Amino acid sequence: MKDINIGILGCGIVGTGVAKLLMENHELLKSRIGTGLNLKYVADLDTHTPRGITFKEGVFISDAEQVLNDPDIDIVVELIGGKTIAQTFTLKALENKKHVVTANKALIASHGNELVKTATANGVEYAFEASCGGCMPVVKSIRESLVGNRIESFTGILNGTCNYILTKISKEGCPFGDALKEAQAKGYAEADPFLDVEGHDSAHKLAILAALAYGMEINLGDIHVEGISNITPMDIEFAREFGYCIKLLAISKNEDDTVEARVHPAMIPLDNPLAHVDKAMNAITIDGDASGQTMLYGAGAGMMPTASAVLSDIADIARNIISGCGQRVPILSYPGDNIKKIAVKPVSDINTGYYIRLAALDQPGVLSRVSGILAEYGISIKSVHQKGRRANGTVPIVMTTHIAREKDVQDALAKISNLDSIPEKSIIIRIEDKLNDQ
Amino acid sequence: MKDINIGILGCGIVGTGVAKLLMENHELLKSRIGTGLNLKYVADLDTHTPRGITFKEGVFISDAEQVLNDPDIDIVVELIGGKTIAQTFTLKALENKKHVVTANKALIASHGNELVKTATANGVEYAFEASCGGCMPVVKSIRESLVGNRIESFTGILNGTCNYILTKISKEGCPFGDALKEAQAKGYAEADPFLDVEGHDSAHKLAILAALAYGMEINLGDIHVEGISNITPMDIEFAREFGYCIKLLAISKNEDDTVEARVHPAMIPLDNPLAHVDKAMNAITIDGDASGQTMLYGAGAGMMPTASAVLSDIADIARNIISGCGQRVPILSYPGDNIKKIAVKPVSDINTGYYIRLAALDQPGVLSRVSGILAEYGISIKSVHQKGRRANGTVPIVMTTHIAREKDVQDALAKISNLDSIPEKSIIIRIEDKLNDQ
């Protein structure tokens, strides 16, 4: 069997990692797969900045077209990122009947349905284990390991930047801005942290995983997204008092093809396995009708962990090539004809528990008026804590509710915000707690 | 494509679960795989006890030979367990060129090398995801997801019975015997709990996973095994004071083909992700040179979680059949020619931290004599705690050590046990703590 020829597009952090791994573990990979994985090209506009790798003559090039048009290239690894040139190159590679491996969650979440169709039509793979959760084998687990299950729900900590920041606020009580600055200084957050801290990166991953889990088209547009920039040390402290921690979660449920998919900070009880996932680590719990709950945990980003996931896709494709089978597992978990277009339930229709923090003037009767409004909307209060008293100012009133409908909570809060005795904006954080009402 | 025909041997708990799952999720599986998985036979000597399933006419039979000899059967699912008739049937199925799926860790750990050779020679699969860790996708993760990694070590909680018992002792302070009785009453432990509580079930899984991870033959004989029957509430309580919990671990390391593999109770720090794996749950951390540490977590046993794992193997084989590729991934992770025969390092040669509890007469000079003996063997004491005083009796002296060689610790303890002032047998528990010496 001749070697499998690989061309990498984009030699940034992950591209460099994949090149290193292919070279350093070449013999290991060959001894397991039975054929050499030959790194024929690494293409990047910048071929001058040192990457700490010694490429063989002719490998490190600046022209991506050379990779896309070389008939010897079997697998193109797209690690450019973004949705512009990466999309063009991916399409061209697929049309040239080259398998494509990528970590590009933004591109898949936005244009995955068409790219998957193009790949299928051309008889090649479009593989993206590295797009969701770094080295955690979440794509493979949903597509293959849990294939016998009706997947009922999954909940993930899918963004290491946010988890690092929340861990830091939680452990040190520092405000969001300081925690973000440290995350940037340590390389856990990008200079422009918008996609991460506002939850969009998690939403990209959620859109991909929901499609795989439920046999639906990728549907990023319908996903409700909130980030963590409003999370305060005070709310984290109150959460702890109630036996919860706060995580940015990507949450998805499927009951009879009514799909929930949302990204937001949430309180989870400390005995939830996700509660102990700290710093920049990622994890996901997946609930199947047969498996019960399983969890995967690992580095969600970083050069070598992401490269490890890219390699798992490369090896899978190499094994398909060697054993002569194409498209052995449907790219989106289900064959195209069996993929449904499913609208995601609007967030106003979800039912969950709520933590509500009001800044109230310290006057008699405030609690009575607030609880009256909640009752009017059918919201059942689980606990109320009035935290200290302050003269001529506001005091925090913290409440938790039993399971309530989001729209009722939002409407009640709008009415509460009109009260003279509630001068500041109220904070709500959803509580994800299966035992919430017991 | 015609349906894939499946015959189950053994209709106990897991066999019943697999039959149920194949029937209840038949349409789901067909929509994902593209072909029906037809349950043609379920063979068990006892066809009279109700299983809560309505089989079609002719499916539930008492003659296993009918399954093994039916030319239409593609996949035989061996769920008989044990090493006698299960081995005979497995061999016959493989020789009849039927793929075999199993959950039988005892058989694989003991006779897996030969069974894998037989399967390979006959061009069929021998698949055993369900043998290790129930629904956790650990076999697939090592064989496929981490294929690009040099796996450096893994540590697993692989026996739900032991983990349930240790959790119970830890939370309620009850003695081992009471915890075992409750585990039996709740169905978490078998009437004869020997294989579970003495660590042999964990050792079976460890032998299988070490082979997959390191490209070595399955080597059960060399694995050092200790169970949990000597663990007392007192030691768990001391562990907690030092910031540890006690788990029955299957531990394996590979440094340049020097392999450690051992099963024993160990103290792990509370910030180790395995420390929060409670009750009957299983988990495994795997350290790869690229991936860093990943963890899998899930139900390690039970009817439907195990059935979920069996289904993942059945689906993989069905996909191979449909796409016309045989033996796409080597059964033991590496092709036969690349599998090494590696001796496991004797436990006397390992280096780790130790917790030592001595029952000492409450006399002056005991500690001096004990620490003198430890010093003589080059063992460095990290902390000493003398817990309370008791007149005319023994008091516990609890010590932790820095990293030491097992043989030195055992020799020192033998010498200590000869002291008149140490009238009772000393307890040692290994401390698995990467930060132990910092």
Summarize the SSE layout with pairings.
2 copies of one chain form a homodimer.
Chain A lengths: L3 E6 L3 H12 L1 H8 L3 E7 L16 E2 L2 H6 L5 E4 L6 H11 L3 E4 L2 H17 L4 E2 L10 H8 L5 E7 L2 H13 L3 H10 L8 H4 L2 H15 L9 E2 L7 H9 L2 E12 L2 E12 L11 E8 L3 E8 L3 H21 L27 E11 L4 H11 L4 E6 L7 E8 L2 E2 H12 L9 E5 L7
Parallel strand pairs in A: 1-2, 1-4, 2-3, 4-5, 5-6, 8-10, 10-17
Antiparallel strand pairs in A: 7-9, 7-11, 9-10, 11-12, 13-15, 13-16, 13-17, 14-15
Helix pairs in contact in A: 1-12, 4-5, 5-10, 7-8, 13-14
Task: Describe the fold and architecture.
Two copies of one chain form a homodimer. The first copy, chain A, has 438 residues and is an alpha/beta fold. The first copy, chain A, has 14 helices and 17 strands. Chain A has helices spanning 13-24, 26-33, 64-69, 85-95, 105-121, 138-145, 160-172, 176-185, 194-197, 200-214, 233-241, 303-323, 366-376, 406-417, and strands at residues 4-9, 37-43, 60-61, 75-78, 99-102, 126-127, 151-157, 224-225, 244-255, 258-269, 281-288, 292-299, 351-361, 381-386, 394-401, 404-405, 427-431. At the A-B interface, helix 2, helix 6, strand 12 and helix 12 of A face helix 2, helix 6, strand 12 and helix 12 of B.
